[in-house]
Amino acid sequence: QKARIGVTGLAVMGRNLARNLARHGHPVAVHNRTSARTKALVEEFGGEGTFLPAETPERFVESLERPRRLVVMVKAGGPTDAVIDEFAPLLEPGDMIVDGGNANFADTRRREADLRERGIHFVGTGISGGEEGALHGPSIMPGGSAESYEALGPLLEDISAKVDGTPCCVHVGPDGAGHFVKMVHNGIEYADMQLIAESYDLLRHAAGLAPAEIAEVFRTWNTGRLESYLIEITAEVLAHTDASTGRPFVDVVLDQAEQKGTGRWTVQTALDLGVPVGGIAEAVFARSVSGHAALREAARGLPGPSRTAVADSGFADAVEKALYASKIVAYAQGFHEIQAGSAEYGWNIDLGAMATIWRGGCIIRARFLDRIRAAYEADPETPTLLTDDHFAEAVGDAQDAWREVVATAARLGVPAPGFSTALAYYDSLRADRLPAALTQGQRDFFGAHTYRRTDRDGSFHTLWGGDRTEVGA
Ligand code: 6PG
Hints:
The structure is a single chain. Helices cover 55% and strands 9% of the residues. The strands form 3 sheets. Strands 3-2-1-4-5-6-7 form a 7-stranded mixed sheet, with helices on both faces. Strands 10-11-12 form a 3-stranded antiparallel sheet. The model has no long low-confidence stretch (mean pLDDT 97). The longest helix is centred in the last third of the chain and has 31 residues, at 315-345. By secondary structure, it is α/β, with parallel strands linked by helices. A hairpin with a 2-residue loop joins β8 (162-163) and β9 (166-167). The radius of gyration is 25 Å and the shape is globular. It starts with a strand and ends with a strand. 6-phosphogluconic acid binds next to α8 and α12. It catalyses: 6-phospho-D-gluconate + NADP(+) = D-ribulose 5-phosphate + CO2 + NADPH. Belongs to the 6-phosphogluconate dehydrogenase family.
């Protein structure tokens, strides 16, 4: 018997993905650099389906039906290249290598081009949902050729999460499109998490609530428009008590957030594409600030406001509004980045389809994403989600509370970079005139960088050092 698909790299994500495939009735070849893991998988979970363990790359490749579908689940970067170098020579034209790691899309583009020359399809695939998602149904974002999707799509759709019967898997676009979209997914994930963290911090330090009480607030929010996986687990984490000290778990965890790189890439890429993603950037920077222990220690004694907590019973509702509005901004920015990346690389990404496959399985899954799907269905060319009828109304309703929350944060000295930047973005977009005109004047003054006028075409320069007449540039 041959395997329909193979998975190499059997750490927790690879192992769970292989089990998911087997549980869906797909005979799956399994391989790991050290074969103890392969053995352990088959011993522990062999009853879940048909596993074909292979000790060597050669045996692994031989055990696959053609065209071969080989899923690589190793650490992004060097290890991925090492595995490709090992397996590609064993493959034949028409075979497929699927990279399910969190690869940088630029690496995926390079690998795809290299392997295409050798007739091998390289399918950089975003997979979201963590360990549980990999096992029970992740959200899957495959890039690569349309031809490879014909052979892979049905399998991936089969093991993906489903929402209203629709698989959370779609062909995103050629070469690096899948990993690009996964990268932005993670950037949005960072922003979502940061906004939730700020909400918690405000409820704790501005409203004076205890973690267990805040957990209840999040539980309530999770029954409304904010319903999402991240809100749900936030309540769980906040309600948890540390066993060894009896204190709230959140109080015994070191307050330095780590990151593996996808959020940073989202921002770096946005800078290259010229897309403003302040919400995502502030989320990355907030993690960075938290990690600068020595800097924070040095600054700890700096003066702050004479704090008085707000006792207002409506404050939690105001925070809910600020959170919803800021979340809309973060998604609007993320989708803008996907739109720009798609245009830059000619991927032709269907934005509504991305919202559709993020409704289930992935870390940012949320009721809200169905609204985004609907927004793109109503107008696939919408320049920003913020002008969609539903979102414009929601932000319009929320804005007074949103401003109050940002003002309260500033007044009480509670850092709220995510809420603040989101509000500034909203106000920048809706502004009639921006002070960028002054910036242009300064640039022209010190560097003759020229400016354009509102009333005439062309570029102009004022003779600042002379008689200040204006000349055409
Ligand atoms: C997912 C997640 C996952 C990512 C973690 C950790 O979609 O399942 O995005 O791919 O590895 O979120 O990321 P950080 O370590 O950078 O927080």
